[in-house]
Amino acid sequence: MATKIILDSSKFKDERPFSERILETDDFLLIHFYLKQGQKIPMHTSPSLVLITVLEGKGRFFYGSEENFEDLDCGETIKYQPEEPHGFSALEDMVVQALVIPKPVKRVSIS
After folding, report:
1. What are the residues whose beta carbons fall under 8 Å from the beta carbon of 50, sequence distance 6 or more?
2. 65: how many CB neighbours lie within 10 A of its CB?
3. What pTM value is reported for the model?
4. 108 in a domain, yes or no?
5. CATH of the domain at 81
6. Sheet of 77-80: strands edge to edge?
7. 20 to 30 Å CA-CA from 4: which of 20, 68, 96, 110?
8. pLDDT tens, 24-46?
9. Is residue 34 one of the residues assigned to a domain?
10. Domain containing residue 73
11. Alpha carbon distance 93, 54 (integer Å)
């Protein structure tokens, strides 16, 4: 049965970014991140391919190091290869969708 997924502005948190696992299968993981302007997901790696799409707002997406980045607007996507260091910050309140393929065997560690 189809399920409608609605973005919810009440999920923005003043203290830190909020993440929500939307769908998890044996093959992939789909996550929504809610970041208020200035909040950041620090640099980290994943053993999987990661596709991140901006659903609302605008952000800065780092690759390799924080000196390398792309600014993305609503509707734009960035692809990170497995083990590629990456992170992002919100230039304005932002919701992003991360598709992680394949689903990591263990949770990704973000420090």
Report:
1. 79, 80, 86, 98, 99, 100, 101
2. 11
3. 0.91
4. no
5. 2.60.120.10
6. 18-24, 29-35, 94-101, 49-56, 77-80
7. 110
8. 999 999 999 999 999 999 999 99
9. yes
10. 23-101
11. 11
Amino acid identity, position 39:
Q
Residue 15 lies in a domain: no
Please choose, from the candidates 39, 42, 21, the residue with its C-alpha nearest in 3D space to the C-alpha of residue 109.
42
Span 5-29, pLDDT tens digits = 999 999 999 999 999 999 999 999 9
Residues 6+ apart with CB under 8 A from 87: 40, 41, 42, 43, 44, 61, 62, 66
Distance CA 111, CA 65 (A): 14
Pick left, alpha or beta for residue 109 (phi over 0 → left; psi -120 to 50 → alpha; otherwise beta).
Answer: beta
- Residue count (the chain): 111
Would you state the structure tokens that stand for residue 24, as one six-digit string?
Answer: 């998890």
Asked, for residue 13, whether it belongs to a domain, the answer is no
Residue written as token pair 């960035």: 78
Give the tens place of pLDDT for each residue, 60-110.
Answer: 999 999 999 999 999 999 999 999 999 999 999 999 999 999 988 765 545
